Amino acid sequence: MWDYSEKVQEHFFNPRNAGAIDEANGTGDVGSLSCGDALRLTLKVDPESEVILDAGFQTFGCGSAIASSSALTEMIKGMHIDEALKVSNQDIADYLDGLPPEKMHCSVMGREALQAAVANYRGEEWKDDHDEGALICKCFAVDEVMIEETVRANSLRTVEEVTNFTKAGGGCSSCHEGIEEILQRVLAESGENFDPTAVPGEIKRPQSTLTNLQRIKRIEELLEEIRPNLRRDNGDVELIEVDGRKIYVKMIGACSGCQMAAVTLDGIQQHLANGLGEFIQVLPEQELARRAG
Protein backbone atom coordinates (compact mmCIF):
# COMPACT_ATOMS: atom_id res chain seq x y z
CA MET A 1 0.00 0.00 0.00
CA TRP A 2 2.81 2.42 0.89
CA ASP A 3 4.87 3.99 -1.84
CA TYR A 4 7.60 5.28 0.49
CA SER A 5 11.22 4.15 0.44
CA GLU A 6 12.68 2.62 3.58
CA LYS A 7 14.82 5.73 3.98
CA VAL A 8 11.77 8.04 3.91
CA GLN A 9 10.08 5.91 6.56
CA GLU A 10 13.26 5.89 8.67
CA HIS A 11 13.55 9.70 8.59
CA PHE A 12 9.85 10.05 9.40
CA PHE A 13 9.78 7.66 12.37
CA ASN A 14 13.23 8.73 13.60
CA PRO A 15 13.77 12.29 12.36
CA ARG A 16 17.24 13.75 12.72
CA ASN A 17 17.85 17.25 14.09
CA ALA A 18 14.20 17.92 14.98
CA GLY A 19 13.66 21.14 16.89
CA ALA A 20 15.33 24.54 16.93
CA ILE A 21 19.07 24.55 17.67
CA ASP A 22 20.75 26.61 20.37
CA GLU A 23 22.72 29.70 19.33
CA ALA A 24 21.35 29.62 15.79
CA ASN A 25 22.54 32.52 13.66
CA GLY A 26 20.47 31.76 10.58
CA THR A 27 16.70 31.10 10.40
CA GLY A 28 14.52 30.42 7.38
CA ASP A 29 10.72 30.24 7.41
CA VAL A 30 8.74 29.05 4.37
CA GLY A 31 5.20 27.87 3.72
CA SER A 32 2.18 28.64 5.87
CA LEU A 33 -0.19 26.72 8.10
CA SER A 34 -3.13 27.88 5.98
CA CYS A 35 -1.64 26.07 2.97
CA GLY A 36 -1.02 22.89 4.95
CA ASP A 37 2.81 22.94 5.05
CA ALA A 38 5.22 25.12 7.01
CA LEU A 39 8.92 24.74 7.74
CA ARG A 40 11.42 26.60 9.94
CA LEU A 41 15.09 25.77 9.37
CA THR A 42 17.70 26.99 11.87
CA LEU A 43 21.46 27.01 11.22
CA LYS A 44 24.54 27.49 13.35
CA VAL A 45 27.26 28.78 11.04
CA ASP A 46 30.91 29.33 11.98
CA PRO A 47 31.44 33.06 11.23
CA GLU A 48 35.08 32.54 10.24
CA SER A 49 34.89 29.47 7.99
CA GLU A 50 31.18 29.84 7.11
CA VAL A 51 30.78 26.11 7.59
CA ILE A 52 27.40 24.90 8.86
CA LEU A 53 28.14 23.43 12.30
CA ASP A 54 24.59 22.40 13.11
CA ALA A 55 21.11 22.49 11.63
CA GLY A 56 17.63 21.87 13.02
CA PHE A 57 14.06 21.96 11.75
CA GLN A 58 10.52 22.45 12.93
CA THR A 59 7.78 21.52 10.48
CA PHE A 60 4.04 21.26 10.20
CA GLY A 61 3.23 18.88 7.41
CA CYS A 62 2.97 15.32 6.22
CA GLY A 63 5.42 12.45 6.65
CA SER A 64 7.30 13.43 3.49
CA ALA A 65 7.77 16.98 4.80
CA ILE A 66 9.27 15.64 8.01
CA ALA A 67 11.51 13.18 6.16
CA SER A 68 12.66 15.82 3.64
CA SER A 69 13.50 18.29 6.42
CA SER A 70 15.37 15.61 8.39
CA ALA A 71 17.34 14.60 5.29
CA LEU A 72 18.21 18.19 4.41
CA THR A 73 19.67 18.93 7.84
CA GLU A 74 21.81 15.79 7.66
CA MET A 75 23.05 16.68 4.18
CA ILE A 76 24.16 20.24 4.89
CA LYS A 77 25.91 19.83 8.24
CA GLY A 78 29.64 20.29 7.64
CA MET A 79 29.13 22.08 4.33
CA HIS A 80 30.25 25.60 3.49
CA ILE A 81 27.13 27.70 3.03
CA ASP A 82 27.92 28.29 -0.66
CA GLU A 83 28.16 24.53 -1.15
CA ALA A 84 24.92 24.00 0.77
CA LEU A 85 23.11 26.44 -1.50
CA LYS A 86 23.85 24.13 -4.42
CA VAL A 87 21.74 21.37 -2.85
CA SER A 88 18.66 20.98 -5.05
CA ASN A 89 15.26 19.58 -4.24
CA GLN A 90 16.15 16.58 -6.42
CA ASP A 91 19.27 16.01 -4.29
CA ILE A 92 17.02 15.81 -1.22
CA ALA A 93 14.70 13.32 -2.94
CA ASP A 94 17.67 11.25 -4.12
CA TYR A 95 19.11 11.17 -0.59
CA LEU A 96 15.83 9.62 0.52
CA ASP A 97 15.90 7.08 -2.34
CA GLY A 98 13.01 8.91 -3.96
CA LEU A 99 9.73 10.54 -2.91
CA PRO A 100 6.22 9.80 -4.17
CA PRO A 101 5.55 12.14 -7.13
CA GLU A 102 2.71 13.81 -5.20
CA LYS A 103 5.16 14.75 -2.43
CA MET A 104 8.00 16.33 -4.39
CA HIS A 105 6.82 19.76 -3.22
CA CYS A 106 8.17 18.82 0.23
CA SER A 107 11.71 18.76 -1.13
CA VAL A 108 11.13 22.10 -2.90
CA MET A 109 10.05 23.61 0.43
CA GLY A 110 13.27 22.38 2.05
CA ARG A 111 15.41 24.01 -0.64
CA GLU A 112 13.62 27.34 -0.16
CA ALA A 113 13.99 27.17 3.63
CA LEU A 114 17.74 26.70 3.19
CA GLN A 115 17.98 29.74 0.90
CA ALA A 116 16.01 31.80 3.43
CA ALA A 117 18.19 30.67 6.37
CA VAL A 118 21.45 31.50 4.57
CA ALA A 119 20.10 34.91 3.59
CA ASN A 120 19.13 35.53 7.21
CA TYR A 121 22.63 34.57 8.37
CA ARG A 122 24.14 37.03 5.88
CA GLY A 123 21.85 39.81 7.06
CA GLU A 124 20.02 39.89 3.76
CA GLU A 125 16.30 40.11 3.16
CA TRP A 126 15.38 36.85 1.45
CA LYS A 127 12.77 37.08 -1.24
CA ASP A 128 11.33 34.02 -2.91
CA ASP A 129 10.35 36.25 -5.86
CA HIS A 130 6.83 34.88 -5.62
CA ASP A 131 5.39 38.36 -5.23
CA GLU A 132 6.98 39.44 -8.50
CA GLY A 133 4.78 37.21 -10.64
CA ALA A 134 1.05 36.93 -11.12
CA LEU A 135 -0.70 34.71 -8.58
CA ILE A 136 -1.65 31.54 -10.47
CA CYS A 137 -2.94 29.24 -7.72
CA LYS A 138 -5.00 31.09 -5.12
CA CYS A 139 -5.65 27.93 -3.08
CA PHE A 140 -1.96 27.52 -2.21
CA ALA A 141 -0.63 31.01 -3.03
CA VAL A 142 1.71 29.82 -5.80
CA ASP A 143 2.72 32.40 -8.37
CA GLU A 144 3.99 32.39 -11.93
CA VAL A 145 7.68 32.82 -11.04
CA MET A 146 7.77 29.83 -8.71
CA ILE A 147 6.08 27.59 -11.28
CA GLU A 148 8.44 28.72 -14.05
CA GLU A 149 11.54 28.13 -11.92
CA THR A 150 10.34 24.71 -10.76
CA VAL A 151 9.44 23.62 -14.31
CA ARG A 152 12.92 24.57 -15.55
CA ALA A 153 14.81 23.09 -12.59
CA ASN A 154 13.00 19.74 -12.69
CA SER A 155 12.19 19.39 -16.41
CA LEU A 156 8.46 19.20 -15.77
CA ARG A 157 6.13 18.52 -18.69
CA THR A 158 2.60 18.16 -17.31
CA VAL A 159 0.13 19.97 -15.07
CA GLU A 160 0.14 16.94 -12.78
CA GLU A 161 3.91 17.21 -12.31
CA VAL A 162 3.59 20.94 -11.53
CA THR A 163 1.01 20.08 -8.86
CA ASN A 164 3.27 17.40 -7.39
CA PHE A 165 6.23 19.78 -7.13
CA THR A 166 4.48 23.03 -6.11
CA LYS A 167 0.92 22.07 -5.00
CA ALA A 168 -0.40 24.57 -7.59
CA GLY A 169 -3.57 23.18 -9.13
CA GLY A 170 -4.14 20.72 -6.31
CA GLY A 171 -7.12 22.57 -4.87
CA CYS A 172 -10.04 23.81 -6.96
CA SER A 173 -8.25 23.13 -10.29
CA SER A 174 -9.36 26.50 -11.71
CA CYS A 175 -5.71 27.46 -12.34
CA HIS A 176 -4.93 24.52 -14.63
CA GLU A 177 -5.32 26.70 -17.71
CA GLY A 178 -2.80 29.20 -16.32
CA ILE A 179 -0.36 26.38 -15.53
CA GLU A 180 -0.72 25.07 -19.09
CA GLU A 181 0.13 28.52 -20.47
CA ILE A 182 3.31 28.60 -18.37
CA LEU A 183 4.27 25.11 -19.54
CA GLN A 184 3.73 26.15 -23.16
CA ARG A 185 5.95 29.19 -22.72
CA VAL A 186 8.77 27.47 -20.82
CA LEU A 187 8.87 24.40 -23.06
CA ALA A 188 8.96 26.64 -26.14
CA GLU A 189 12.25 28.08 -24.86
CA SER A 190 13.89 24.73 -25.68
CA GLY A 191 11.93 24.14 -28.85
CA GLU A 192 9.43 21.74 -27.27
CA ASN A 193 5.67 21.69 -27.60
CA PHE A 194 3.35 21.29 -24.64
CA ASP A 195 1.21 18.15 -24.90
CA PRO A 196 -1.95 18.51 -22.79
CA THR A 197 -2.63 14.77 -23.11
CA ALA A 198 0.75 13.72 -21.72
CA VAL A 199 1.10 12.20 -18.26
CA PRO A 200 4.22 12.05 -16.05
CA GLY A 201 6.90 9.87 -17.55
CA GLU A 202 5.12 10.08 -20.89
CA ILE A 203 3.17 6.94 -19.99
CA LYS A 204 -0.18 7.11 -21.73
CA ARG A 205 -3.10 5.99 -19.61
CA PRO A 206 -6.42 5.20 -21.20
CA GLN A 207 -9.19 7.54 -20.15
CA SER A 208 -11.63 6.01 -17.70
CA THR A 209 -14.76 4.58 -19.30
CA LEU A 210 -16.47 4.02 -15.95
CA THR A 211 -19.78 5.68 -15.19
CA ASN A 212 -20.00 7.73 -11.99
CA LEU A 213 -21.74 4.85 -10.22
CA GLN A 214 -19.13 2.34 -11.42
CA ARG A 215 -16.32 4.68 -10.35
CA ILE A 216 -17.75 5.05 -6.83
CA LYS A 217 -18.13 1.26 -6.61
CA ARG A 218 -14.49 0.86 -7.68
CA ILE A 219 -13.37 3.34 -5.02
CA GLU A 220 -15.30 1.38 -2.39
CA GLU A 221 -13.61 -1.83 -3.56
CA LEU A 222 -10.17 -0.21 -3.28
CA LEU A 223 -10.96 1.08 0.21
CA GLU A 224 -12.04 -2.42 1.18
CA GLU A 225 -8.57 -3.65 0.22
CA ILE A 226 -7.04 -1.14 2.65
CA ARG A 227 -9.36 -1.77 5.60
CA PRO A 228 -7.64 -4.89 7.01
CA ASN A 229 -4.46 -2.85 7.61
CA LEU A 230 -6.39 -0.07 9.33
CA ARG A 231 -8.52 -2.41 11.43
CA ARG A 232 -5.44 -4.14 12.79
CA ASP A 233 -4.71 -0.83 14.53
CA ASN A 234 -8.38 -0.32 15.54
CA GLY A 235 -9.00 2.18 12.78
CA ASP A 236 -11.07 2.39 9.60
CA VAL A 237 -12.01 4.69 6.73
CA GLU A 238 -15.38 5.63 5.25
CA LEU A 239 -16.10 7.15 1.84
CA ILE A 240 -18.03 10.42 2.27
CA GLU A 241 -18.23 11.99 -1.19
CA VAL A 242 -16.68 11.88 -4.65
CA ASP A 243 -16.42 15.21 -6.45
CA GLY A 244 -14.52 14.69 -9.69
CA ARG A 245 -10.90 14.03 -8.77
CA LYS A 246 -11.50 14.91 -5.12
CA ILE A 247 -12.39 11.98 -2.89
CA TYR A 248 -13.48 12.85 0.66
CA VAL A 249 -13.14 10.26 3.41
CA LYS A 250 -13.78 10.01 7.14
CA MET A 251 -11.10 8.51 9.37
CA ILE A 252 -12.68 6.30 12.05
CA GLY A 253 -11.58 4.92 15.40
CA ALA A 254 -7.86 5.07 16.14
CA CYS A 255 -7.25 6.69 12.73
CA SER A 256 -9.26 9.76 13.78
CA GLY A 257 -6.90 12.35 15.22
CA CYS A 258 -3.91 10.02 14.96
CA GLN A 259 -0.52 11.75 14.59
CA MET A 260 0.06 9.64 11.48
CA ALA A 261 -3.30 10.52 9.88
CA ALA A 262 -1.59 12.53 7.13
CA VAL A 263 0.65 9.59 6.25
CA THR A 264 -2.38 7.26 6.23
CA LEU A 265 -4.21 9.59 3.84
CA ASP A 266 -1.13 9.65 1.59
CA GLY A 267 -1.18 5.86 1.46
CA ILE A 268 -4.90 5.74 0.71
CA GLN A 269 -4.47 8.31 -2.05
CA GLN A 270 -1.65 6.34 -3.65
CA HIS A 271 -3.65 3.10 -3.52
CA LEU A 272 -6.73 4.71 -5.07
CA ALA A 273 -4.70 6.51 -7.74
CA ASN A 274 -3.05 3.25 -8.77
CA GLY A 275 -6.33 1.35 -8.74
CA LEU A 276 -8.24 3.98 -10.71
CA GLY A 277 -5.38 4.76 -13.08
CA GLU A 278 -5.88 8.50 -12.68
CA PHE A 279 -4.68 11.52 -10.73
CA ILE A 280 -6.90 12.03 -7.66
CA GLN A 281 -6.83 13.71 -4.26
CA VAL A 282 -7.95 12.06 -1.04
CA LEU A 283 -9.09 14.65 1.48
CA PRO A 284 -10.49 14.42 5.03
CA GLU A 285 -14.19 15.15 5.54
CA GLN A 286 -13.26 18.33 7.45
CA GLU A 287 -12.02 19.82 4.18
CA LEU A 288 -15.44 19.21 2.60
CA ALA A 289 -17.15 20.95 5.50
CA ARG A 290 -14.70 23.87 5.25
CA ARG A 291 -15.37 24.35 1.55
CA ALA A 292 -19.12 24.15 2.09
CA GLY A 293 -18.85 26.82 4.77
Total number of helical segments?
11
Distance between the termini: 33 Å
Please tell me the overall pLDDT. Answer: 83
> How many discrete domains?
3
What amount of the residues lies in strands? 15-25%
Q: What's the main sheet like?
A: 3 strands, antiparallel
Rounded to an integer in angstroms, the radius of gyration calculated over CA atoms is 20 Å
How would you sum up this structure, described in words?
With 293 residues, the chain is an alpha+beta fold. The chain folds into three domains: 6-121, Sufe protein. Chain: A (Alpha-Beta Complex), CATH 3.90.1010.10; 130-202, Orthogonal Bundle (Arc Repressor Mutant, subunit A), CATH 1.10.10; 212-292, 2-Layer Sandwich (GMP Synthetase, Chain A, domain 3). 43% of the residues lie in helices and 17% in strands. The protein has eleven helices and eight strands. It has helices at 6-13, 63-76, 81-84, 89-95, 104-121, 144-154, 159-166, 176-188, 212-231, 261-276, 285-292; strands at 26-32, 37-45, 52-60, 135-137, 142-143, 235-243, 246-253, 281-284. The strands form three sheets. The chain has a three-stranded antiparallel sheet with strand order 1-2-3. Helix 1 packs across helix 2, helix 4 (89-95) packs across helix 5 and helix 5 crosses helix 7. The longest helix is centred in the C-terminal third of the chain and has 20 residues, at 212-231. The radius of gyration is 20 Å and the shape is globular. 38% of the residues are buried.
